Amino acid sequence: MIQRKAGFRIAAIAIPIFTLFGAGCREKDAAKDSAAPTDPAVQTASCDDMVSKLCARAGDKSLICEASKNLGGVLPKSACTAAIADFAEMEQKIDADRKVCTDLVDRLCKDVGPDTESCSIVRAQTPQFPREQCEQLIQSYAEVLSELKQKEAQNQPLSVEARDRIAAKGAPGFGPEDAKVTIVEFSDFECPFCTRAAEVVHQVRARYGDKVRFVFRQFPLPSHSGAHLAAQAALAAHEQGKFWELHDLLFANQRALSRESLETYAKQANLNLAAFERALDAQTYKAAVDRDASLGESVSVNATPTMFINGKRVPNPTAFEPVAKLIDAALGGA
């Protein structure tokens, strides 16, 4: 996702987004005995198993994980098997080393709300952070908490008035106005992530047809030099009933959005070229593009693509299945 403004503090200090390792069940403590282990799982344990267990416990980017990866390549299998047999003791030491991260999660979830989406994200991501990054977050705690609360506020469903405002008539789109599900996307033709979202929209149209209404809003980022003119060109095509034809060509060629290139795509889309050129010369649709951008800012859009389904912000509009799951929920299984 490409941002219009400064991003979330966790991103600002270069902490990546991680997925949560399986459900949070702990491995059963291996039985210890002075003789050779009798548990088949322990007997067949490899150094890869040891590394996986250590990294899952300590965090994928932790120094402990990195060190275990190096050691796992040189230790004999017997040493790795013994380490797994004594893993309960190692867990205690790892947990003590990572207490700063555990405390950070508890503190953030208490302050932002234990039942919030932000708390869920914190609980999912923080276990994979190196201890040093947890320490950095604590040093900037007030700012981190402020931005988490801001993000949580943005994730709240839009008011009915705001939903109606961003879905108002006139913008390009498809589907009946009385559809049970209304999807509104704010997009930028020069944004590579928006290309992925455009593919998702085509899949949505193919699967759901007239069960949904889709509205496309312009949100050209200032950092994308060709995006604003491309947005104007898309609205000029919309005036001629050829929005989707040009939409697809713009995303397919988003690294070439010069005026000359736009005219080439207009020809390929079988637009009335003279009318198209007049619209760009006169900046006929500049104000409309700016209104869309202002509309987005009024509902806290600061990055592209941003998508709303019935007023609820979509966490990942660049992947079809998560979007489809939200649509199905909004349809009530219809």
Explain the overall architecture:
The strands form 2 sheets. Strands 2-4-3-6-7 form a 5-stranded mixed sheet. It is built from 18 helices and 7 strands. The longest helix is centred in the middle third of the chain and has 17 residues, at 192-208. β6 (306-309) and β7 form a beta hairpin. The model is unreliable at 5-44 (pLDDT under 50). It is elongated, with a radius of gyration of 26 Å. The protein has 334 residues and is of the alpha+beta class. Helices cover 56% and strands 8% of the residues.
List the helices and strands and how they pair.
Layout: E1 2-3, H1 9-12, H2 40-43, H3 47-58, H4 63-72, H5 77-85, H6 87-97, H7 99-112, H8 117-125, H9 131-139, H10 141-154, H11 160-166, E2 173-174, E3 181-187, H12 192-208, E4 212-218, H13 227-239, H14 243-252, H15 259-268, H16 273-281, H17 286-298, E5 303-304, E6 306-309, E7 312-313, H18 320-331
Parallel strand pairs: 3-4
Antiparallel strand pairs: 1-5, 2-4, 3-6, 6-7
Helix pairs in contact: 3-4, 3-5, 7-8, 7-9, 13-14, 13-16
**Can you identify the CATH superfamily of the largest domain?**
Glutaredoxin
State the helicity in percent bands.
Answer: 55-70%
What's the helix count? 18
State the low-pLDDT regions, or none.
5-44
- Given helix and strand content, the structural type is alpha+beta
Largest sheet data: 5 strands, mixed
**Count of strand segments:** 7
Count of discrete structural domains = 2
Q: What order do the SSEs take from the amino end to the carboxyl end, as H and E?
A: EHHHHHHHHHHHEEHEHHHHHEEEH
Q: Quaternary state, please?
A: single chain
Tell me what the CATH architecture of the largest domain is: 3-Layer(aba) Sandwich
Gyration radius, rounded: 26 Å
Give the CATH topology of the largest domain: Glutaredoxin
Distance between the termini: 31 Å
Q: What value does the average pLDDT take? A: 85
Share of β-strand residues: 5-15%
